């Protein structure tokens, strides 16, 4: 078992603490939080060991799980990497692309592994869809959330949309060549609702919308490709696959047949995959443990987390342009 510590005991940090404490791949050593009053309260309530000194925690673990506000990601990860500790960093990887690139170089220099917490990669609906998605040419993603003051210190692109940016980049095997975007600040000082259009070198187009001022929650993506349409509902954990094939000469009475203007007939059928329930946060943490133990590449590398941040920053820059 790998010895692990958690940095940050806020809302998400407490979830990570509980899951790591339950995990069979980790031994939870303890946690550090800069708010010592809060930290002592967590220690008393749940029994996790509180380390007043971050350096002392690092000296006792193999892996550090960084679940702090983004502004602290770089400095805390830098200290861990220099101590030879593997790092799991919540998304976004850092505040700037420059910081993220620096972490990549640092991790290589110290032979340390890193993974970024893009949890939707481990969503069972998305996992089930991956084997069905093949060269999509149009993607539409909606990530809508009811207003919550937590997270409004950053643009909605970094708070919500970055989930879909990472998921799309992991599927489209091509570089982004053009970005158009617009954003509106309704309640916060930074945009609360954003739409972005990504054009890839291979011709694929992705249209992303993110909002944190909606009346209902939605986390849904649709992938359109030759003879197929795949819908992934990240919230409800449902994947729907609609495919088309050449219609048989004598279709049965219940067959769904479409005929285009040229007279070509296609049959519509459904190929919905089975969804295997899981705890996505636990999965991302435990697959990182496997990568460390087996010396393999983590599922969401520091490089991938950096590319998602790079595109997110380009979207934010496009607001002004």
Automatic annotation (TrEMBL):
<dbReference type="GO" id="GO:0000166">
    <property type="term" value="F:nucleotide binding"/>
</dbReference>
<dbReference type="Pfam" id="PF01408">
    <property type="entry name" value="GFO_IDH_MocA"/>
</dbReference>
<dbReference type="InterPro" id="IPR036291">
    <property type="entry name" value="NAD(P)-bd_dom_sf"/>
</dbReference>
<dbReference type="Pfam" id="PF22725">
    <property type="entry name" value="GFO_IDH_MocA_C3"/>
</dbReference>
<dbReference type="InterPro" id="IPR055170">
    <property type="entry name" value="GFO_IDH_MocA-like_dom"/>
</dbReference>
<feature type="domain" description="GFO/IDH/MocA-like oxidoreductase">
    <location>
        <begin position="155"/>
        <end position="216"/>
    </location>
</feature>
<dbReference type="InterPro" id="IPR000683">
    <property type="entry name" value="Gfo/Idh/MocA-like_OxRdtase_N"/>
</dbReference>
<dbReference type="InterPro" id="IPR051450">
    <property type="entry name" value="Gfo/Idh/MocA_Oxidoreductases"/>
</dbReference>
<feature type="domain" description="Gfo/Idh/MocA-like oxidoreductase N-terminal">
    <location>
        <begin position="2"/>
        <end position="118"/>
    </location>
</feature>
<protein>
    <submittedName>
        <fullName>Oxidoreductase-like enzyme, Gfo/Idh/MocA family</fullName>
    </submittedName>
</protein>
